[in-house]
């Protein structure tokens, strides 16, 4: 028998992961990030930038998860990342760079809480933020395209990180 929201027996759990979004402004992406943050039990979702809108288009995608996911909107990502690192967070950026580690090979060797930085839909994670990271990971791509939607990439990355945290 197929299970529903009401009869599934998933264990509710919180992970010490803060998702920091570098200027992600697309309303459906924002709504989907709320759903993913809820699904993976993320500690906090932080949107950084000037044009973040939590309007009707976002709410259609979020399916009300914005009502119980801990989130905030901040103007300056540099300040947010710096503050989290000062509080002892291990920083990981999801970005393809010359030195990034393939996600399937990445080993999370820390007991620190994690900040996962996600980049702008078109421009990725800014260079000045990449320089502050403890690690940079990417997802190998096997088709013609060199990137995927930020929400899909976040889902894959959170799956891997939470799996490692459970080990």
Outline the structure in words.
- Helix content is 31%, strand content 21%.
- The chain has a single domain (15-136, 148-158), classed as 3-Layer(aba) Sandwich (Alpha/beta knot).
- It has five helices and seven strands.
- Strands 3-2-1-6-4-7-5 form a seven-stranded parallel β-sheet, sandwiched between helices.
- The two termini are 30 Å apart.
What key phrases describe this protein's structure?
alpha/beta; 167 residues; seven-stranded parallel beta sheet
Summarize the structure.
The chain is of the alpha/beta class. It has helices spanning 27-39, 56-62, 77-86, 127-130, 150-166; strands at residues 15-22, 42-48, 71-74, 90-94, 101-102, 114-118, 135-138.
**Which structural category fits the helices and strands?**
alpha/beta
CATH architecture label: 3-Layer(aba) Sandwich
Number of strands: 7
Radius of gyration, rounded? 16 Å
Low-confidence stretches: none
Query: How would the global form be characterised?
Result: globular
User: In percent, how much strand structure appears in the residues?
Assistant: 15-25%
Number of domains: 1
Distance between the termini: 30 Å
CATH superfamily: SPOUT methyltransferase, trefoil knot domain
**Can you tell me the CATH class?**
Alpha Beta
What letter string, H or E per element, gives the SSE order? EHEHEHEEEHEH
Q: Fraction of residues in helices?
A: 25-40%
